[in-house]
Design a protein that fits this description.
single chain, mainly alpha, Helix Hairpins, 6 helices
Length: 241
């Protein structure tokens, strides 16, 4: 087999090995992202509950202030009643008192209602807080495992990158540049085997002349259909034979 072809096959397989770790890294990141998404959702629920409780407390405070003013109004009206001399004035004062009492009744009902809502929300708040704490613990555990997993992958990749650098130094630069140019668009299928007289990059059948040249392997052969570098895998060749 042509020396340069042999070198490119080895380099291509090494590049495939490097990129084979990408799905593993993505899967590891997804594990962390999945837990983080759950934490974000639980935290958002917690924040919403806190905001709702705070809003209701402000409304309760407003009704309490209103009750104070209404009580003062009733006391004032009671004092005014002593100085009333006409029936018209008495009716007007009585109407004011009725309106004030209605407002007080509504305010008290709203305070009771809002306090009931907040009681329920505080119960949910406790559950949401526990959920965030539990998920945070789970995140820490998963993140630690993923960190170990990533470290092992990066270590393996470093070994392969070192091997790639060594292989690249030994390949003639013109040949290496030719390979890298194909790899830009073909990725890790820049160098592919021929099986059953077909390119295993584009799966198109080779004509007899090209197939014969690939078998001889005296020179680097490209697929006439897609341009990938072709070679015959000895194991596949023996099996097909």
């Amino acid at each position: 087999m042509n020396k340069h072809l042999n070198e490119l096959i080895e380099l291509s397989k090494n590049d495939q090995a490097i990129d084979s770790y990408t799905p593993q890294l993505e899967a590891a990141d997804k594990k962390v992202a999945k837990i983080q998404k759950k934490i974000d959702a639980a935290q958002a629920e917690l924040d919403t509950l806190n905001a709702d409780i705070a809003e209701n407390e402000e409304r309760i405070k407003g009704f309490d202030e209103q009750l104070v003013l209404l009580n003062e109004q009733l006391k004032s009206n009671a004092a005014k009643s002593k100085d009333i001399t006409t029936e018209k004035e008495m009716k007007a004062l009585s109407l004011e008192e009725d309106i004030a009492k209605e407002k007080m009744t509504f305010a008290n009902e709203e305070i009771e209602r809002l306090q009931g809502i907040n009681e329920t929300k505080r119960s949910l708040l406790e559950e949401a807080s526990e959920k965030v704490t539990a998920l945070s613990g789970e995140f820490t555990a998963v993140n630690e495992l993923v960190s170990v997993e990533r470290a092992e992958i990066e270590k393996s990749k470093s070994t392969l990158f070192a091997k790639r650098e060594k292989l690249s130094r030994n390949i003639e630069q013109k040949v290496l540049a030719f390979y890298e140019k194909i790899r830009i668009w073909a990725g890790n299928t820049a160098v592919v085997p021929v099986k059953k007289q077909a390119c295993y990059g584009c799966y198109m059948k080779l004509n007899d002349k090209t197939y014969s040249e690939v078998i001889k392997a005296d020179e680097i052969c490209n697929c006439p259909h897609c341009g990938r570098i072709l070679y015959i895998d000895p194991v596949t060749e023996n099996t097909e034979a």
